Amino acid sequence: MGESIEIGDITISVTRKDVKNVHLSVHPPDGHVTLVTPTSTRIDVARAYAITRIGWIRQQQEQLRSQAREAPRSFVGRETHYLWGRRHLLRVTELDAKPEVKLDHRTIHLQVRPGTSRDGRAKVIHAWHLKLLHGAVPPIIDKWERRIGVKVHRYFLQRMTTKWGSCNSKAGTIRLNTELVKKPRDLLEYVIVHEMVHISEPTHSPRFFALLSEHYPSWPEARRELNELPVPQLTGS
């Protein structure tokens, strides 16, 4: 079981890595706090450092709490759904045939078998989202591999509640939040570039941000826009 630090009502997950500096992060969408620390750092020293940043932690969590929240979806007709940053209306057709999803301008057409439950409809939409992401992600990776000079051996798509993406620098793999299909395409690209830079620099060190600024100068604006967009309710789909 991993280590954690309790400071009042805040729980901080601690990860020990072969790094030189301590790095503290507050992750969207729910404000989960993590602390990456050198392997030799005593837990009381890590806690003392976290206490000095408690004001910053609360400020970041408050910003995340103030974000607009998407209501859980019921997957019924005339419901609003986001795709690539744009609002679309859902149209549902019940037909005794293979379920499918089609996009027609600003309407998402969902075809399901009669009596399909809300969860069943959600699974059909989720499978469609995965298909869209699998079509969008590889060209972006290919484009940036040449620019950054790294190799992504594999990428994974996963529902996440605390991160937009993650990277295993040793394995050369990146993991992306499936919710990114609902955000503008340029923000998907930003997250991919962010994680690809981590292959060269695993931590959020000064070198990491220097590399990110070199390759993607508009990253502060992209990060701010991403974190200001509506995020899903944690109990929703």
UniProtKB/TrEMBL annotation:
Gene3D superfamilies membership: Metalloproteases ('zincins'), catalytic domain
Superkingdom of origin: Bacteria
One Pfam family matching this protein: YgjP-like
Residue intervals of the YgjP-like metallopeptidase domain: 23-228
InterPro entries per record: UTP_pyrophosphatase-like, YgjP-like_metallopeptidase
Protein name: M48 family metallopeptidase
Source organism per UniProt: Paracoccus aurantiacus
Organism lineage: Bacteria, Pseudomonadati, Pseudomonadota, Alphaproteobacteria, Rhodobacterales
